[in-house]
Each structure stands twice: as C-alpha cells, then as structure tokens.
Amino acid sequence: MSVRTFTAAQLDVSPFNVRKDRRAIESLAGLEASILRVGLILPLAVHPMKGSKKHGVFDGGRRFRAIRNLIARGDLPADWPIDASVREIESEAQLLEISSAAGLLHVDLLPWEVMEGLRRATRRGATPEEIAEVTGQTITWVRQHLRLAELAEPIFAAYVEGKITNDQARAFAATEDHKLQLAAWDAFGHLPSWDRTVAKIHLLMKVGDREDQRLLRFVGEQEFRAAGGVFELDLFADAAEHRGHVVQPGLLRELVEAKLEGVRDSLRKRSGRTDLRFAPEYPQARHGGIDRDLELVPLVETAPADAQRLAFLRDELVELEFQFERVADPQATAAAVELADCRAEIRAIEERAAIALPAGEIYATLLIEQSGALEVRWWWASHAAKRAAETPAPERLVSAGPIGTPSPTTIALAVDAGRGSVNQQQAAYAAKTEHALTADGVEIVRAVRREMLRAALVGEYGCGIGHDYLIWGLLRRELTQRDHRAIGARGLAWSDDAPPAQLMPVIQSALQETPAHRAWVAQLDQLRAHPAIAGADEVEAFAAFRDETAEWKELAAAALAAIALTRTANLDGYRLKIHDHLMWEMGLDDDEALRDLWEPTEGFIALLPRAKRQELADPHLDEATRRKLPGLKAAETIAPVTRALKRVCWVHPALQFEFTDTRPIAGELAEAELTEEAA
Q1: Which residues contact 189 (CB under 8 A, 6 or more apart)?
Q2: Is the dihedral of CA 617, 618, 619, 623 positive or negative?
Q3: What is the pLDDT of residues 622-664, one digit of tens each?
Q4: Which conformational region is residue 84 in: left (phi greater than 0), alpha (psi within -120 to 50 degrees), or beta?
Q5: Fewest Cβ atoms closer than 10 Å to its Cβ: which of 2, 126, 193, 343?
Q6: How many C-beta neighbours within 10 Å does residue 213 have?
C-alpha cells in the first residue's frame, strides 16, 4: 500500500463502495465546510479500476463527493491535491471485504449497508471465515449479517426503509426459507400495530415452537436428522436457548408416533396384557381436575442383579450430571459420552423389568413432558372397576352341610372396615364360631392385643424394631398403592392446605423445571424399587428393611420426613422457623447452595409483573440490556431478565431461608449447666 496525490479528474467513486444510503450521500454541507476550512484530514482509500485509467474510491466516498462539489462551485481549484492510499486488490470479493471493514469504523454507516456489502463479497467468492478475519468480527456476527442481507426482498426493503425494527428483521431471518418468511410477512401485515412483536413473528414462523421442541426432545435431534429431518437453528438465539425451526413437522410426528408405539408394545409385553389400552388424557374428576383416586402404581419387578446395578447407575448418573453441568464445553468432554451411556443402560434395565398389574380393567396414559421425557401413569378404568378389584366377592353363607371354618386370608379385611360391613360380619361370625366371642368381646381383644404390642415396642428390646417398623410402614404406605391394612399401622395425615385442583398442572410444570424435583423423583424411584417397598409380602418386605444398613434406613427416614413436609414460603403467613432451621442444619445456608436446587426459568419469571421483573434484574443487567428493556413489550422482557438472573447467584426472596445460628445459645446453656454442677 502506498500514499499518492491525485486530482479529482483522476478519481471516481468505486462501484464496490458499500455505502448506498442516498440521504447520507447527499447530506454533504457540513463535510464541505470542514474540507474548505481545514482541508482533507484523512486520506481516501483507492484502488486501480479495471478498464479505466482512473482509481476508484472505496473508502471516503462522501469526502470525495464533497470535494467534487466544491470544485464545481469554484470554491476549490480543479487540480486541488487529494491524498489517497492505493491498495492493490487481488479480487473484487477482497475489495468488498475491505470496504465493509472500513465502513464499520464509521458510526454513520447504516447496518443494512454493511449487510449488502458482505452479501456482495460472498457472491464474488469470499467465505464467511475470510470476511470475519478481514473485518475483525466473529464468524457468528458475519453469518447473522449475511442472513439478514438475504431476507426476502419485501422484508429487506421494509427494513431499509425503517418500517420494521432490527429485532423484527432478525426474527424473520431466523430461517432462510423465503417461502416461510413471506407467508409470515403477509400475516404480519394484517396484525394490529400493538401485536407486531418479535414473539408473534416467531409464532407465525413456528420458530422455537414449544410443541415442536417438546416432540423433538422426545425423538432426539440426532435421530430426527438421521431420518432425514432438518432442524434449522435460529442464528439469533442465545446459545443456551437452542431455538430453531423444524422444517419437516410431518416427519417429526411420524417418528413420535413410531416411538410411542414401541413404548406401548413394550408395556403390553412387560405387563402381560396384550389388550392393554392407552388413553390420551388423565381421567377427569366430576368437579374438575384429575381424578387421582383412580391412579394406581403397579409393582415393578426387577431382577435382583438388575436392581443392584440400577441403584449403582442412578448414583453414578447424579455424579455425571454434576460434572457435565460444570465444564466449559460439555459436548467436547468424555462426560457427555459417559452420561449418554449411563442413561441408555438405565433405560434398558427399566424396559426389561416386569410390571405387575392387579386384576381388573386398567389403562395407561403416555404424556410427553416439555423436557422430552415420557411420563407413564396407570389408571383404573372407573371407580366401579377399582371397587370390584379391591373388594373380594362375599362368601356365601348357605350350605347343604355344616359350615366350615373360614380360610385365613393374606390381608385382614376387617381391619379398618366400616362397622356393620360385610367383612366385619364375616369376621364376627368366625370369632363366634371358633371362640364364642361376642362382637364386644372382639373389640376388647383387639384393643388389648394392640396394648401388648405397644408395651413391647417401648420395652427393653423393642425400640430399634419400633423405629424400623414406623419408618418402613409409613414409607411403604406412601410409595405404593397396595392394600394398606396389611401394614397394621396408621399413615400420615394429609394437609388441608392442598393447592386447588385446577392449579395442579401448572404447579407440576413449575416443579419439573427445578433440579430439586429431578433429584427428589430419582431418589423416590430408587426407594420404590427396593424389596422393602416393592415386595408383595409384608413380612418379607419388613425383613428386607431390617436387613438394610443404618445409612439406608436414614435415607428412608429422610424421605419419609420429606413426604410429610407442608408447603411454606419466605412470606408473611407462610414462614416457619423450623424449615429455616432444617436448611441451616444441612449446611444449605446461602444462595449459592440453594442454586443447586433451583434456578430461574422463564416460566417462573413470567409469574412476576413487568415492574417487579425489572426491579429484581436491574442490579444484574448489562448497560445495553438495561437501556433496551423499557422499550420491550412485557412478554419480551421475560427472556433477557431470566438470562441476567441465571448468570448470577440469585434466588427469589420467597424461596430463600432465613438462617439463625443456634450454636451460641446451646453453648451458653451448656456453660450454665457446668457452672451449676460445679456449685
């Protein structure tokens, strides 16, 4: 590159100069006055023009035009010296790259001018990588600007004319499919002005569509692509969002149905019910909501070796997920492969475990969650079907011969039965026949026998057994759908503070987004699979509990305590000091520890009004987002606020715990006791 002096007659504006905005080209009065007063401060950048003796100005076109205007008016002589740096250019593409790079240094260069310059460079052979290197921009920045430059013509024209914003243009450029862009553009034009949002454009183009994303996660992106499907990522989405557009939704739904049919076949085989039917929705209660009384949890019979391996793999999965979430580039590490292998082996073991369903009319529901996981639940076909399965046919008391002794049953059906019920009548008849006991006598015997058991459990040898029996009985009662009369003890009382039935799906969705819920469900699944809980015979199940280690029993007790918890919050009227103290005792006494159990999600942030969102996020926003936020629609503020709060160690105040260190108080009490003893 060399610097030479030219006259105006030796120069012309290069056809490769990226500036095209007429308003900028023609508004030269200020620039002309500056040149006339102080001269040309910065030299022009020129190149030899093919087929001409002139040099073309590819950077400094406005300055050159201003000089020509001054010469035409006679304010400058025709031979006024013009300094210019001469570049020898290898190709037209390189020239456009340099012109675009130079244009980026000018604050008054419009974005669409840069885009057009980059597009012209690529059409002359420059690659995005080469453009990124020359302009000093990232490859993502270059690809985004090229995508915007390639917008369908009417959309790009509207962008140039300022009829749509930069964010709206980026939304249309989420896909390179012009047909889809134009269809969305046509619908967009018929919307009222208040509804012309970025979110609406994404909705029209099905970019980031929740339904498609849900089904894609279920099938697996890799499997979808292997089947010939195309998932086009939105170039303008944050890396964490993985937002995009499913190009072949029909193929995706075919793959979903094929995978679901495979699951149905597997469940029919595992349950031994070749005629097992499936329903698309949960049963509805008479007054709205899910009829939870019809749900049943079947016994899953896993081979002992498989059960042992499954417990190991689930522990391993927790550790692998912990490692996976804390590496800079998870996909590039061995953790990704190990995690996939671990999950695959867990699925394989679970899919070969037998499912023991009680006799009766039963169906299953298969629902794909937003995370892509498949939820399988089992239901009685009706209340009549449930009653028929749970209530044995009454024994006929008529006989041609002497009445024999009733055969013992595995479950004491008269326990907890209603007074005067068929089961109690049969038990009373047997007691009278065998022992000549009246109905009052039976009640007395039952009470005395319980008193004997109570005294034994609190006696010299019974405390440890009583501890195990309490934990085992309550936990088995909570985690299985078996007839609980066989346990021989009362269960936990249910709280009257249950959420309204219509809110349950929303609450369940919010829970499923939390790491705490995933850890809790995984732990319950392990407990349910244990012989102490899953075993059919109560005596054998209790023996399995007794044979376990002290550590495992502590886990079972902790799970039972967790089941018994009431719902509280760090809010007036819902705050309990004992819950705060529990978290302190467990060492979870700061927000950093709580973030392992919960993190901000868009669903949670959407619960908050716009003003509160901005108030909470303001200390953690970068300056650009802080300036941009007030101009966004309320719904559009959810994503940037969530991203800002995810980047820092933030926990919503209503989820926090107020910690009080009780150790100083305990120390003072101990010291006082020692002083008293010494005295």
Answers
A1: none
A2: positive
A3: 888 888 888 888 888 888 888 888 888 888 888 887 765 555 4
A4: beta
A5: 193
A6: 18
Determine phi and psi for 245, rounding to 5 degrees: -130, 125
Instruction: Say how far apart CA 597 and CA 619 lie, in whole Å.
Output: 23
- The Cα 548–Cα 555 span in angstroms is 11
8 A C-beta contact, residue 581 and residue 660 = yes
d(CA 236, CA 175): 10
Taking the whole predicted model, whether its pTM rises above 0.85 is answered as: no
Instruction: DSSP for 324-350, please give it.
Output: HHTSSSGGGSHHHHHHHHHHHHHHHHH
User: How many helices (H) does the chain have, and how many strands (E)?
Assistant: 32, 13
Query: What angle do helix axes 92-104 and 128-135 make, rounded to 10 degrees?
Result: 40
Please state, for a pLDDT cut of 70, what percent of the chain lies above it: 72
Torsion sign across C-alpha atoms 331, 335, 338, 344: negative
| Cα Rg of the chain, angstroms | 37
Q: What is the DSSP track for 212-243? A: HHHHHHHH-HHHHHHTT--EEE-TTS-TTT--
DSSP code per residue over 382-433:
-HHHHHHHHSPPPPP---SSPPPPPPP-SS-TTTTPPTT-HHHHHHHHHHHH
pLDDT in tens, 521-568: 888 888 888 888 888 888 888 888 888 888 888 888 878 778 777 777
Q: What tokens appear for 353 in the block?
A: 């475990």
Give φ, ψ of 359 to 5 degrees: -65, 145
The structure tokens listed for 44 are 């022009």
Q: Which residue has tokens 């009733």?
A: 406
Neighbour tally for 610: CB within 10 Å: 17
Average pLDDT of 352-358?
88
Q: Tokens 């629609």 sit at which residue?
A: 633
pLDDT tens digits, 230-267: 888 888 887 656 788 888 889 999 999 999 999 999 99
The angle at the Cα of 200, spanning 194 to 204, to the nearest 5 degrees, equals: 135
CB-based contact 49:62 (threshold 8 Å): no
The span from the CA of 253 to the CA of 215, in Å, is 8
Structure tokens belonging to residue 2: 């060399």
Alpha carbons within 13 angstroms on the beta-carbon side of residue 533 total: 26
**Mean pLDDT, to the nearest integer, of 386-399?**
63
What's the DSSP call for residue 282? P
Whether the CB-CB separation of 65 and 28 falls below 8 Å is answered with yes
CA distance 200 to 191: 10
The answer for residues whose C-beta is within 8 angstroms of residue 2's C-beta and 6 or more apart is 85, 86
**Cα–Cα distances in angstroms (integers) from residue 476 to residues 275, 468, 490, 634, 664, in the given order:** 30, 12, 12, 47, 40
**Complete edge-to-edge strand list for the sheet that includes strand 277-279:** 277-279, 362-368, 374-380, 295-296
